[in-house]
Structure formats: C-alpha cells, structure tokens
Specification:
The protein is built from twelve helices and 18 strands. Mean pLDDT is 89; it is low at 360-371. The radius of gyration is 26 Å and the shape is elongated. It has 424 residues and is of the alpha+beta class.
Length: 424
C-alpha cells in the first residue's frame, strides 16, 4: 500500500473561495437569523450603521446563547457533518452558514455571546488570516470595537454577530443612499423568507431592522375574500405526511385594491413570483419556481400563470434528496415525487389561467349570461399587444373541431390579433 500525506487547504485561499458562494446581503442575513431561531430566540434585531468605510452591521438575538465550547464549535469550519442526524427543528445542515454567509459580506466577523451569565467572544479577521495563512481564530473584538459588544457582556443570554470591514457591501462609490436602498431589499427578502414565523401567533417571533418591526409578506393572500381558489393539503405519503403541498390561485388584479395588488406582487413582481414556494421547517428556501417541471421542456414563467402559487413543505431529513445547497437557495425534487408535483401543478396552472382570462370579474349580458374575456395582454418593450386566448372555452371548441381547417383557423386568429384596432 502506498503512503499518504496530509494536504490541508491554505487558509487564505480557502476562505476567499468560500466568499464566492453567491450570497446576497439579504440571503446572508437570513442564514444568521436561522441560527437565532435554532437558539430559540423570540426577537432578532438587525442594525445597519452607516459610517462610510467604517460601516458595520449587527445582528442581535435573545436566544439561549452559547458557552465557550459551543462558540468555539460554531466558529470553526468543517466541524459538523451534514450527514449527521440533527434535531427535526434545526434550520442548518452544513454547519457553515454563520461563517460563509458572514465572509461573503465582510472581512471581520465577531461573535459575542452570553449563556447562563457567562460571556465569550471570538473573531475571524480575513486580513490577518491572509497574511499568516494560518487558521487563527482570535479572542475578543478588534481594537476599537470593544464598545460595540459592551452591551452584550451585561446580558445573561443571547448572541451578537458583528460584521465589520464590509468590503463586499461598501465598495467604491457606495453612498448612504445605497445603504438605505440595501436595507429596503433586505427587509423585503426577510419579510418573505420568515413570513410563517412572523405570522405564527402560537410561537412569538419578532424581527426588527434599525428599530422598525418587519411585517410578514404572505405569498398566498390567506384569508382574502376574493381568493380564486386553494386546495386542501395533499401529502405525498398519507402515512408519513412529511412532504405536503397546498395549491393557491390568487385573485385577479381587478379584485384587489391598488395597495393589495402592489404588495401581493412580492419582491420580484407578479410574473416572477409564480410557482412553487419550498419550505423546510416553515423557513422559505425557494420562492417562485416551477422546479424544472414540465412536459417535453421545463415550464417558463408566463403572464397567464401569474396567479398560481404553490406551498411545498419538506422536512430537514430530506435535504440530500432535494439537493438543498449551502445557501438554502435551491432545491431539486427527487424523481419519486416529480409526477405527483406535476399533476398538482398542472391543475393549479389551469385554474390560474382561467382566473386570469376571466379577469376576476366576468362581464354579464342582460341579467344572467356570463361572458369570459377572450383576450390576453402581452407587455412588450414597444407597448401592449393583445392575443386571443386559445384556452378560452369558445375558442378552444372551434380549434378542437376545426379538423383539416385548423391551419386556416389559426391564420385567421393571427390576422385578428395583428389588426385589432387599438392604440399601442
């Protein structure tokens, strides 16, 4: 048998590589909040402090905190094995979130924590790490930063995560207005990611950004009187009941106030927000995706399906099967569930298409007969175009019965679309 040799990674090169995992500031902060929730925190405060190149971000929770051994473990890379069994309520998997999320945004990470009245603090400084090329975990805050953790020292429990040297945020040309815009983006993302925690009246959880309470963003408009449709909970395994789906068709714009319509569009807008919302332990992992499903080719996001949103819950025991990544930003359905998910999604998309075509408020002729709109709009760079909805019941019936005349009928529909007398 041939010999072997130790081949540890270079500290500086390894950390710089980890910084490129693709976190945004919002998704990085969400990873830190996961740790707070796992520590049974009922309140998390995020403070963005602008001071140009000396700006910093603080994440403070009132959770259980960590003792000296727990903090040491939390600050090390590669200590936890993602294949190990975990608590069913654990929001982590790789044991890297605190470090990789923080390193993606800053060059100095300090964690100060109190547990049973005992206080401990450790720090990573990527500049020191790069110069020494050794895994030097430092004790206490950086010189001059002692004041930032002083309040945490007097607490009996809880944790403060301090980001300094925000080189991935405060870059050249970055101003205080950019900082404020960033806060808005973070607020929208966290309101969506943790909306089920924020809405859970049985288990209090509050989130604040610069002292302002974050209000949840509910993708499904639960309880809205104009809701077009929602399904009962469906379980992939009726006995195991660990993977569940609830399908929703939201109200058409005509049934919403301007404020409701703007809010329900979500961070990325109505068309982008359609599809599956994948949750693990109530924490949103993926917002608005058709998960690569479709017949022949994957479904794309089309305006006709903008009202379709599907809640999909999975347990943390199936992270590997669903290919959950380190950033908790992607998921791929196992082959065994794809057919089931596609059946539910096809039904939801069909219902959403009909609700969108009907515009929420069908027109009436006389006192009884309902007329469903046969036109759908397409917003192009050069204006709005109108297309005939081939899934409209009357149009569909003609197409289905046209037989050999189908090509001529489609040409006629195309002529009507291109010559409709409206202003562009």
């Amino acid at each position: 048998m041939k010999g072997s040799r130790d081949a540890p990674p270079r500290a500086g090169a390894m950390v710089e590589a980890l910084r490129g995992l693709g976190y945004t500031t919002a998704s990085a902060l969400a990873d830190i909040i996961d740790n707070s929730i796992s520590a049974k925190a009922s309140k998390v405060e995020i403070n963005f402090i602008w001071a140009a190149n000396q700006s910093r971000i603080e994440i403070i929770d009132n959770g259980l905190g960590m003792d000296a051994e727990g903090l040491d473990t939390a600050m090390r890379l590669g200590v936890l094995n993602p294949l190990d069994d975990r608590n069913c309520n654990d929001l982590g998997r790789f044991g890297l979130g605190l470090k990789t999320a923080s390193f993606s945004q800053c060059r100095s990470l300090t964690v100060a924590t109190s547990c049973n009245g005992q206080f401990n603090s450790l720090r990573w400084d990527l500049d020191i790490l790069a110069s020494s090329d050794r895994w030097q975990l430092l004790e206490g805050p950086a010189k001059g930063s002692e004041v930032f953790i002083k309040e945490q020292e007097s607490k009996k429990k809880g944790t403060l995560v301090l980001w300094e040297k925000l080189d991935r945020i405060v870059s050249k040309g970055f101003t205080s207005q950019h900082f404020l815009d960033l806060i808005d983006k973070v607020e929208r993302h966290l309101a969506m990611t943790f909306h089920r925690y924020l809405d859970d009246k049985s288990n209090k959880f509050e989130l604040y950004i610069n002292g302002i309470k974050v209000r949840s963003w509910d993708p499904f408009l639960l309880g809205h009187p104009a809701k077009a449709w929602n399904s009962p909970l469906a379980y992939f395994s009726p006995t195991k009941r660990d993977v569940s789906v609830e399908c929703h068709v939201l109200p058409h714009q005509d049934r919403l106030s301007d404020k409701e319509f703007e809010s329900a569009g979500g961070p990325d807008g109505w068309t982008a927000q359609q599809g599956f919302y994948v949750y693990r332990n109530k924490r949103l992992l993926l917002a608005g995706s058709w998960l690569g499903l479709g017949k022949g080719r994957a479904w794309t996001k089309e305006e006709a399906h903008r009202l379709a949103r599907i809640q999909l819950d999975i347990p943390n025991t199936e992270d590997s099967e669903w290919e959950i990544d380190i950033r908790k930003a992607s998921a791929t359905p196992p082959v065994a569930v794809k057919k089931w998910l596609m059946h539910l999604a096809e039904d939801t998309r069909s219902r959403a298409r009909k609700a969108f075509a009907a515009r929420g408020k069908p027109n009436r002729i006389g006192h009884a007969q309902l007329v469903i709109q046969a036109w759908k709009t397409e917003h192009k760079a050069d204006g709005v175009r109108y297309r005939i909805d081939e899934n409209h019941p009357a149009v569909r019936a003609v197409l289905d019965d046209s037989g050999a005349m189908l090509p001529q009928v489609k040409v006629m529909l195309r002529v009507l679309e291109e010559t409709i007398p409206v202003q562009y």
